[in-house]
């Protein structure tokens, strides 16, 4: 058993690290589920008047099918992600929170419908009576992905069955499928927004269409009455006009904001400075010479500086390899010496600054010097850039993206590992040193500590008891 | 850059102040009413409740921003007032009278107006608020890993008098390793899916520098009903931005008015009541105790680095002097290194270290959210974009340096434990291969 304080600290640190990982994992799973939904066959958007009874009516049709365990697992993940998304959305929109109360029950039924094999034959939107033109990529489309709408009556059958209907060119027929045959309830419902919500955004944005229905029809010709996948028809997608308008207005406004930020009005700046100065003159509460938040910023900066200096040191020592010191040219060797001396000076400076901060914290003054905002400069980091591309990170292949994220994870992981190693060292090394004679329990502890501290817990040393022979 | 339809004349004159305040109010999502400000100037109690809740609603999100584990906002006015007082204290706001305001919110609107205006300048509140509520419609990528896997406090339930066995610690560490692996797998999958989505929608984005659609944008098409939220948010962001620009244009009037507010001072300075102010510490990361702990930690790291540098520099210097003296025995001056060259090297190093001080070029943009954009190799890339190769390069450097640090720590432990192992009698210690 480890001592109580040691136990407490180690367990706290480790649980904290685990919780951080779990949080990250949840975020990732949520994002994966969102992507998967988009990559699955697309159902044509439902009309903005779904009957709530629909989802309950469709349920029995799908219980006839046995989903595979893999599908069930995916389903569960999807459910989790959707529930979470729902919760997040609820939190944001308090206005609609009352309306979305029922949607929690709807969400699972959606996913049942989507993940079950029976859900694959898609029915069309009953109101989408527009004669659909055949999809351009129909040769590639597998039967269950581009289901003609009439197959909705066969929804209870297996995908294999549906395949036989795939080739029938009956998609020019007006579709009269009753609403309850649609296996997918409106997505709007699922994500917590009732479809009856007035489309105020669209009207405010000054769109020509009175409702999203006709608008939708205009922007996506040929995508109406068929289920399709992003792979087949993604290239034909077009963002709605009102969205484009909002976004372009948004970026031009941000550009103006950035402009204001870079070119400050001198009269305003002077008036603000005057106000700060006058207010400061009335400060009569004793406090530290530097405000706590400024100390905190400074300490974070020093921490970061220490990290960067260490990194630079490693790199300096790494040039040409440590073993090859003798083979360094005069320039290289001198460069290294000067760099090291420079680093040394920087560390001294930082230590001095830290001492100053400590003194300032202890030194309590009356009116404090609040000169200028330490936050103003940091603000440039936020917001959207003036131009769309200024904040873009370009990648050229999936491998590149994967390498980047893997490296990012590796760096985060190493930071976590180093932090934990330091904590373990602080807690466990004194333990080993203080306790002297080696009983079996003690030896087991040594072995565990050695493995953890020196081998990252991946390998173990062997301890053999060598009983002195009599 | 002026707003269309607003001539300079309109920046002053009657009605300018209410207009300025109303613009500010809309930029802050319609919270304060202009009338409240006028009442506060005369310290009327009607304005108190609105100003407290304004201050709280502005400061709370700002302080949840950096927190790893966001908490729940206090419901009661009392808790909100305490929070506001503590935050202002952390920023070094020093009007004693403000901290003495009753927590029932019965009076003190003048003090609150001063505090609010002070925050407007000191924290650049409207700007901060805009940035905080920014709606992103791209596939976002953070390059910096400073927030990744940052540990956060978890409530502990330790049994057995709070003591655990080392095996439990080992088990937790093993679990953590397992988590890392699963994180890696999920990340790779996410990359593949994202890339597919980008690939399938190429050419669909109106902005040619972006080219393809993002997940939120496709969701807008796929689920038009549920994506209305994003549109609404963007709309409201737009109106906030418009209001902000209007405020920026008329701000001067407000500050001139604040001058008269300071002149008015209905309370009277100096404040005769010098009783002590007690504030409960609310923000853990801003409390003196936490800061002292952080300072200790940074000091320890810096001192360890100093120690290491000391040793390295001594070695290096000795080696250098040997080399020089060996050379100068044969030659009158250094054969290959002139004084001018040495000066040049010194200058180069100075620049390198100065760049390091400023946190490197990459650091300045790496803390921002980036929109992930796919472009096949060979396609022309627009200026202002950041290339993945550069990011990868930086990350590799960081990885290498961290690996070294980690290995050094392990070696340090190895040495410590080796000394100990030698002291163990009757036990043979066989290290893993």
TrEMBL record, chain A:
Basic residues compositional bias, start-end: 143-157
Pfam families documented for this protein: DUF4693
Biased composition (Low complexity): 93-109
Region span, Disordered: 43-70, 93-167
Superkingdom classification of source: Eukaryota
InterPro entries reported in the protein's UniProt record: DUF4693 (IPR031518)
Name of the molecule in the record: Uncharacterized protein C16orf59 homolog isoform X3
UniProt organism field: Phascolarctos cinereus
UniProtKB/TrEMBL annotation, chain B:
Tubulin epsilon and delta complex protein domain: residues covered: 92-263
InterPro entries the record matches: TEDC1, TEDC1_dom
Name of the protein: Uncharacterized protein C14orf80 homolog isoform X1
Lineage: Eukaryota, Metazoa, Chordata, Craniata, Vertebrata
Gene: CUNH14orf80
């Amino acid at each position: 058993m480890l001592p109580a304080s040691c136990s407490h600290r180690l367990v706290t640190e480790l649980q904290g690290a685990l919780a951080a990982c779990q949080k990250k994992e949840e975020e990732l799973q949520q994002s994966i589920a969102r992507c998967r939904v988009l990559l699955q066959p697309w159902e044509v958007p439902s009309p903005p008047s779904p009957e709530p009874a629909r989802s309950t009516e469709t349920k029995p049709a799908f219980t006839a099918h046995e989903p595979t365990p893999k599908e069930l697992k995916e389903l569960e993940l999807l459910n989790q992600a959707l529930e979470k998304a729902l919760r997040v959305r609820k939190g944001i929109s308090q206005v609609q929170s009352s309306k979305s109360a029922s949607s929690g029950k709807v969400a699972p039924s959606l996913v049942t419908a989507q993940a079950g094999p029976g859900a694959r034959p898609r029915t069309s939107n009953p109101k989408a009576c527009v004669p659909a033109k055949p999809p351009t990529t129909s040769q590639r489309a597998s039967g269950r992905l581009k289901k003609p709408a009439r197959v909705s009556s066969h929804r209870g059958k297996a995908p294999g069955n549906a395949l036989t209907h795939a080739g029938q060119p009956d998609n020019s027929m007006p579709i009269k499928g009753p609403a309850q045959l649609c296996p997918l309830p409106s997505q709007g419902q699922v994500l917590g927004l009732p479809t009856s919500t007035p489309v105020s955004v669209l009207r405010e944005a000054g769109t020509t269409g009175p409702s999203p229905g006709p608008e939708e029809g205009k922007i996506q010709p040929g995508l109406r009455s068929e289920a399709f996948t992003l792979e087949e028809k993604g290239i034909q997608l077009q963002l709605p006009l009102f969205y484009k308008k909002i976004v372009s207005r948004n970026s031009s406004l941000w550009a103006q904001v950035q402009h204001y930020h870079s070119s400050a009005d001198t009269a305003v700046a002077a008036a603000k400075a005057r106000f700060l100065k006058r207010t400061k003159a009335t400060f009569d509460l004793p406090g530290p010479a530097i405000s706590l938040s400024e100390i905190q910023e400074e300490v974070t900066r020093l921490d970061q500086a220490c990290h960067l200096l260490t990194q630079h040191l490693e790199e300096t020592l790494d040039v040409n390899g440590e073993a090859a010191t003798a083979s360094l040219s005069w320039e290289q060797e001198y460069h290294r010496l000067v760099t090291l001396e420079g680093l040394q000076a920087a560390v001294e400076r930082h230590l001095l600054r830290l001492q100053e901060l400590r003194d300032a914290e202890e030194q309590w003054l009356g009116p404090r010097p609040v000169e200028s905002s330490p936050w103003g400069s940091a603000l440039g980091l936020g917001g959207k850039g003036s131009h769309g591309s200024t904040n873009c990170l370009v990648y050229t292949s999936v491998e590149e993206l994967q390498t980047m994220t893997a490296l990012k994870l590796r760096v985060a992981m190493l930071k976590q590992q180093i932090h934990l190693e330091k904590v373990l060292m602080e807690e466990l090394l004194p333990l080993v040193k203080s306790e002297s004679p080696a009983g079996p329990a003690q030896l087991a502890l040594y072995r565990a500590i050695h493995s953890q501290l020196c081998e990252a817990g991946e390998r173990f040393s062997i301890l053999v008891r060598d009983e002195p022979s009599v | 850059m002026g707003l269309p339809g607003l001539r300079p004349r309109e920046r002053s004159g009657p009605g300018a102040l209410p207009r300025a305040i109303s613009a500010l109010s809309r930029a802050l999502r319609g919270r304060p009413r202009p009338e409240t400000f006028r009442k506060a100037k005369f310290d009327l109690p009607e304005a108190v409740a609105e100003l407290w809740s304004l201050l709280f609603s502005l400061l709370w999100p700002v302080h949840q921003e950096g927190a790893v584990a966001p908490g729940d906002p206090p419901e009661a006015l009392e808790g909100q007032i305490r929070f506001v007082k503590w935050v202002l204290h952390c920023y070094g706001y020093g009007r004693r009278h403000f901290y003495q305001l009753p927590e029932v919110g019965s009076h003190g609107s003048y003090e609150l107006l001063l505090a609010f205006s002070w925050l407007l300048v000191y924290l650049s509140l409207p700007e901060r608020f805009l940035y905080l509520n920014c709606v992103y419609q791209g596939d976002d990528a953070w390059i910096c890993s400073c927030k990744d896997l940052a540990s956060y406090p978890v409530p502990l339930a330790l049994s057995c008098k709070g003591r655990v066995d080392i095996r439990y610690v080992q088990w937790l560490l093993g679990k953590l390793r397992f988590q890392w692996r699963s994180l890696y797998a999920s990340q790779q999958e996410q990359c593949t899916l994202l890339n597919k989505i980008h690939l399938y929608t190429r050419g669909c984005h109106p902005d040619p520098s972006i080219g393809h659609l993002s997940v939120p944008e496709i969701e807008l098409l796929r689920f038009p009903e549920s994506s209305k939220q994003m549109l609404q948010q963007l709309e409201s962001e737009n109106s906030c931005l418009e209001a902000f620009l209007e405020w920026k244009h008329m701000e001067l009037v407000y500050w001139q008015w604040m001058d008269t507010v300071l002149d008015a001072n209905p309370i009277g300075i100096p404040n005769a009541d010098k009783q002590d102010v007690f504030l409960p510490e609310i923000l853990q990361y801003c409390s003196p105790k936490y800061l002292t702990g952080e300072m200790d930690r940074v000091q320890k790291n810096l001192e360890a680095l100093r120690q290491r540098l000391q040793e390295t520099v001594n070695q290096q210097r000795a080696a250098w002097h040997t080399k020089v003296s060996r050379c100068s025995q044969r030659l009158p001056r250094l054969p290959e290194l002139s004084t001018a060259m040495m000066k040049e090297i010194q200058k180069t190093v100075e620049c390198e270290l100065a760049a390091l001080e400023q946190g490197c070029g990459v650091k300045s943009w790496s803390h921002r959210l980036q929109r992930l954009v796919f472009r096949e190799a060979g396609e022309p890339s627009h200026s202002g974009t950041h290339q993945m190769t550069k990011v990868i390069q930086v990350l590799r450097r960081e990885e290498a340096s961290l690996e070294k640090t980690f290995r050094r720590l392990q070696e340090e432990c190895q040495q410590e434990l080796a000394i100990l192992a030698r002291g163990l009698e009757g036990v043979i210690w066989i290290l893993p291969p």
